[in-house]
Amino acid sequence: MNRCVPSTCLMSLFLLSACSLDPPYEKPDAPIDQQWPASSAGACCTAREAFDHDWHGFIVDPRLRTLIELALENNRGLRQFAASVEEARAGYAGAESALFPTIGIDTYAGRSKLPPLVRTPGGGDSAGSIANTFQATAGFTSYELDLFGRIRSQRSAAGARFEASEADYQTARLALIGEVASTWLSLKASQNLLDLAQTTYETQNHYGQLLRKSYNLGSSAQIDVHQADAQTNTAAVQINTYRMQVAQNMNALRVLVGQPVPPALLPSGVLGESLATADVPAGLPSSLMTRRPDIMAAEALLRAANADIGAARSAYFPTFSLTSALGSLSGDFSRLLSAPAQFWSTALSGSLTLIDGGARRAQVDGAHARFDGRAAAYEATVQNAFREAADALNARQEMLTQVAAQKRLVEDYQEAYRQSRLRFEAGMDSYFSTMDAHRSLFEAQQKWSQLELAREINQVNLYKALGGGWSQSLKVAGESRVAERSRPGP
């Protein structure tokens, strides 16, 4: 009957070691619609078909692809997030190591003079003689038996925070891809606007010189010359403005890439020469957003907060620690490893807090409050992600319509300017009528460039809002539309 007692105790310890005080974790329901608003709905593929994290398919322009690869390699901000991931990885490894005993070896060698009638470790009376002591011990001290899951809860929390850190890195990586793409597109638009302003300046200056000659011949009034000079100077001011924008975009791109930008990777600035990004299909399922790294990070932190509740609850239960050692002790080094010199020891200690003035209750309440806060943060992250994606999807079709309409407007103004110029050269129309037609064309071209920029940046924003991409079959749709978007000449 007594033989059953050790087995019963071991079985009890085993069952207790499987105990966990973590509350059952339930992922909160996303407080969003299952479908996008009607304005962004349409025929679509499944979530599995629609999503792909590989950004290479989304970025069509090879120059921009290479630039993004350089940024992912050299950007200092992204390196900081990578270091944070390694720090979180080390924290998780440290939390996991607490589940195992720390085994060490201690050695001691001493020489001392003992008082009379004291027996030496090797046996016999010292008689005031000098004695040697040699000791070697292997074992572990204060190994906590995780009977109530405190250490396992802490390990789970550290693991979830490690996952959140990895997701934060992916968020930063996705943001960097989007920022490089947006800055490169802005540089392209600024360069295009600068080219338009320089062309306008040259045209205004040319007709201004013709008007000045006409004034010298007495065919034009002086006020006409001043008005022509004013329009020329206006174009010069715009040139300076766009030069500043180009320089600012170049500086921003240099910081994002982490090195000087190779000239071969810069955009040409030709409006409508190609699309730098692939098109986005309509009617993408809202379930794509669950792949967003910021949502995954928020959900991982929620799981960590849930595990923290279990760790806080374990303070209500006793802790048990085990100490064990095996070694040898001898006064003669040659006999240190002999059987008579060997010894062992083992001890089990336990402790339980009885009165703490409400400290444990406060810890548990605080853990519950942090969980509620993380749950709210998770829901807010999902809602914000849904809003960002819905806004980008809603703007997508409107921007396509605007760009197409503005392109037709540019073509109309080009024809109006061409006819007005011919009438002016034939003496059938005034200078100001021709310059007014040219100014209208310039403004329409400016607007077209700005709308093209807004449309492509909206594509980038939608790419980020959906967490990274969509299906391979939808990735290179932009390349087939290059020919129809060639820039009309002035």
Explain briefly what this protein structure is.
It is found in: Cell outer membrane. The protein is of the alpha+beta class. It has helices spanning 4-17, 47-50, 62-74, 76-97, 150-216, 222-257, 293-313, 359-425, 431-465; strands at residues 103-113, 130-145, 319-330, 342-351.
Report the top-level CATH class of the largest domain.
Answer: Mainly Alpha
Overall geometric form: elongated
Number of domains: 2
Supply the helix-strand structural class. alpha+beta
Biggest beta sheet attributes: 4 strands, antiparallel
Question: Would you kindly provide a written description of the structure presented here, covering whatever features stand out?
Answer:
This is Efflux transporter outer membrane subunit. One of its GO terms (molecular function) is efflux transmembrane transporter activity. Keywords: Cell outer membrane, Lipoprotein, Membrane, Palmitate, Transmembrane, Transmembrane beta strand. Belongs to the outer membrane factor (OMF) (TC 1.B.17) family. The chain contains 9 helices and 4 strands. A 4-stranded antiparallel β-sheet has the order 1-2-3-4, with no helix packed on it. With 490 residues, the chain is of the alpha+beta class. The longest helix is centred in the middle third of the chain and has 67 residues.
